[in-house]
Design a protein that fits this description.
alpha+beta, Immunoglobulin-like, about 170 residues, four-stranded mixed β-sheet, 1 helix
């Protein structure tokens, strides 16, 4: 058995003897395999670095406020927007949140962020339980009756597209 170092035109045999020229077919094949493995390791490492950057950005997104008890009867449509959760992006770049989810403690109510939604760097967005027009830092769950958050205490949990936990806030 031998290992070929083609760029140096050297062949190292199993007993430690170096030859100046490699002519062994199986040795050249092993060298190609080694080059492919090194390339695979580099690409894999790059993918991990990029993924950790996404996780770092997501960790800079916080549920910074939760208002569970709207004034009056928060089961009626006129009061539902008094229930809300606020998310703040403290990262120095925008975070794409399309497909992420927010749910209550019992996972009875779940909201999915609209496809393509991006929260800008340093910005906040308020998610209201009721109906309204999305924009200007406000999103609307679209409910016409029935509160989302329990007045006597609840927890808003933020999860990414794959269901991974990102943050939570209780009231």
């Amino acid at each position: 058995m031998c290992w070929c170092i083609p760029d140096a035109n050297i062949c190292l045999t199993g007993n430690g003897v170096m030859q100046e020229r490699c002519v062994h077919h199986d040795c050249r094949e092993r060298s190609r395999l080694v080059r492919r493995l090194v390339l695979l390791l580099v690409v894999g490492s790059l993918a991990l670095v990029l993924a950790s950057g996404v996780a770092l950005a997501a960790s800079r997104l916080q549920a910074s406020g939760l208002h569970c008890d709207a004034s009056g009867n928060d089961n009626y449509s006129s009061n539902l927007n008094g229930e809300y959760v606020v998310f703040k992006n403290s990262a120095n770049r925008g975070i794409r949140m399309g497909g992420w989810k927010v749910h209550d403690k019992g996972r009875i109510h779940t909201y999915r962020f609209p496809s393509g939604f991006k929260l800008g760097a340093g910005k906040t967005v308020t998610l209201h339980s009721g109906k309204g027009n999305n924009g200007n830092g406000h999103l609307y769950w679209g409910r016409s009756n029935g509160a989302v958050w329990n007045n006597d205490g609840d927890t808003a949990t933020l999860r990414d597209r794959s269901g991974g936990f990102l943050d939570s806030r209780s009231c």
